Every structure is written in structure tokens, then in C-alpha cells.
């Protein structure tokens, strides 16, 4: 696989992670190096591991994964986005700190939801007979870098927009989930 194709695939796979990171940068009251590292590391790690898992699985379970992967991604993104919307509606006294998407179960769910397409890429590379190690490394690094860039950009936009950005972030996550669902159900 040539390097241009590989980077094109890596950038395409990282777009959902970038959008989620942008939303996270919008809602966090303070963006620290720890936030950037956690999000970038986990998104990059999952983006690197999913193609490896897909490649290892090969074609034997492809039909099983394709039948529900889009529903899983949709469900996870709507769950996290809905939680953000719910928390945004709470009184400021009850919810002094918005949910930190760079921690705990939210981080894991977002990492999985944004990397499911990478699983399918791994399956495709197995079918094509391409070794997975270099593509997985490039995909993970690009996703990690674009995730950090998305958070930094989201932070700048969050400062400019002020209140209400958590609602916007939740709506973005739900929209990404709907996009994934539409692409896999209506456009195929």
C-alpha cells in the first residue's frame, strides 16, 4: 500500500475522532495536558488496535460484525451525547462541573464508537493481503494527533461561544451517530 493511500485512510478514519475531540474541547471548563494526553492516547490506541483486530478476524466473522457495527457506534454516541444534553439542562448548582469525556466509561465508549470503522478497514486489508502493522501504526498516530488538534480547536471555539457549548457538543455526538447509521443502513 502506498503512503498517500495509507495517509488518506488514516485521515478519513480520524475524522469522527476529530469531531468528538472538538466537542470535548468545547465543553471542558479547563483543558489541561492530562485531558489532551488521555483523549489523544486512547483515541489513537483504539484506532490502531481496531484494524489489527479486524485483520486478525479476517473474513470469517465479517458478516457478523457488519450486521451490527453501525448500531453499536450509533448507540454509544447517542448515549454519551444524550448524557451531555441532560447534564447541560441541569441547574448550575446541581452540575457545577460538566461531565469530563476524557475519563472513565465515557472515554472508553467514545474511543470504541469512533474506531469501529477502523475494524472494517482491518478486515478489508486482510482480504487484500496487506500486512497490518504499518497501517495500524499510521492510523493510530494520525488519530491521536488529530484528536489533540480537535480538542485545542474546540477549546478556542468554546471560549468564544461561552455558555451552551455542552448542548452543541452533545448534538454533534448524536449527529455523528446518526451519520454512521445512515451511511450503513440507507446508503448501502
From TrEMBL:
Function description: Probably functions as a manganese efflux pump.
Gene Ontology molecular function terms on file: manganese ion transmembrane transporter activity
Cellular-component GO terms for this entry: plasma membrane
Parts of the chain that traverse the membrane: 6-27, 39-58, 107-127, 133-153, 160-182
Species whose genome carries this gene: Malonomonas rubra DSM 5091
Compartments, as annotated in UniProt: Cell membrane
Record bears the keyword Ion transport: yes
Record keywords, A-Z: Cell membrane, Ion transport, Manganese, Membrane, Transmembrane, Transmembrane helix, Transport
Top-level taxon of the source organism: Bacteria
InterPro entries on file: Mntp/YtaF, Put_MntP
Membrane topology summary: Multi-pass membrane protein
Protein name: Putative manganese efflux pump MntP
Similarity remark: Belongs to the MntP (TC 9.B.29) family.
UniProt keyword annotation of Ion transport present: yes
Amino acid at each position: 500500500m502506498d503512503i498517500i493511500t495509507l495517509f488518506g485512510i488514516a485521515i478519513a478514519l480520524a475524522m469522527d475522532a476529530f469531531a468528538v475531540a472538538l466537542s470535548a474541547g468545547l465543553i471542558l471548563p479547563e483543558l489541561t495536558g492530562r485531558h489532551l494526553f488521555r483523549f489523544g492516547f486512547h483515541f489513537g490506541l483504539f484506532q490502531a488496535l481496531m484494524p489489527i483486530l479486524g485483520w486478525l478476524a479476517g473474513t470469517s466473522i465479517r458478516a457478523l460484525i457488519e450486521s451490527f457495527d453501525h448500531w453499536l457506534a450509533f448507540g454509544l454516541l447517542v448515549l454519551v451525547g444524550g448524557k451531555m444534553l441532560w447534564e447541560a439542562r441541569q441547574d448550575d448548582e446541581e452540575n457545577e462541573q460538566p461531565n469530563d469525556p476524557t475519563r472513565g466509561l465515557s472515554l472508553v465508549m467514545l474511543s470504541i464508537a469512533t474506531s469501529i470503522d477502523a475494524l472494517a478497514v482491518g478486515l478489508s486489508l486482510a482480504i487484500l493481503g496487506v500486512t497490518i502493522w504499518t497501517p495500524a501504526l499510521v492510523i493510530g498516530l494520525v488519530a491521536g494527533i488529530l484528536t489533540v488538534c480537535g480538542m485545542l480547536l474546540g477549546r478556542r471555539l468554546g471560549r468564544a461561544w461561552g455558555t451552551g457549548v455542552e448542548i452543541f457538543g452533545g448534538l454533534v455526538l448524536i449527529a455523528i451517530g446518526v451519520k454512521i447509521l445512515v451511511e450503513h443502513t440507507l446508503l448501502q
